[in-house]
Automatic annotation (TrEMBL):
Quaternary context: Homoheptamer arranged in a ring structure. 2 heptameric Hsp10 rings interact with a Hsp60 tetradecamer in the structure of a back-to-back double heptameric ring to form the symmetrical football complex.
Classification via SUPFAM superfamilies: GroES-like (SSF50129)
Organism expressing this protein natively: Carassius auratus
Protein name: 10 kDa heat shock protein, mitochondrial
One cellular-component annotation, GO: mitochondrial matrix
């Protein structure tokens, strides 16, 4: 069983896995680890049911499992599941999603 299947985010929280950093340029030059930029793209692996508004109705989360999203440079809560790093963000903190 995969780690994120054992973990369900609460309310409007979204669990994401950051995509791997580029280690080679398009020209084939290796990029040192210290020079690699922070990866702001991630894949959504689990979503909460949504937040409750003042009328008591649930507002669903804007992303779904499998979406590729753009994250803010800072923020999120690191969660380690089965020795892998995941991050929890609020739905409103996600900057956008990539459409294919």
């Amino acid at each position: 069983m995969q780690a994120f299947r054992k973990f369900l985010p609460m309310f409007d929280r979204v669990l994401v896995e950051r995509l791997a950093a580029e280690t080679v340029t398009k020209g084939g030059i290796m990029i040192p680890e210290k020079s690699q930029a922070k990866v702001l793209q991630a894949a959504v692996v689990a979503v909460g049911p949504g937040s409750t508004n003042k009328d008591g109705k649930v507002t669903p989360v804007c992303v779904k499992v499998g979406d590729k999203v753009l994250l803010p440079e800072y923020g999120g809560t690191k969660v380690v599941l089965d020795d892998k790093d995941y991050f929890l963000f609020r739905d409103g903190d996600i900057l956008g999603k990539y459409v294919e």
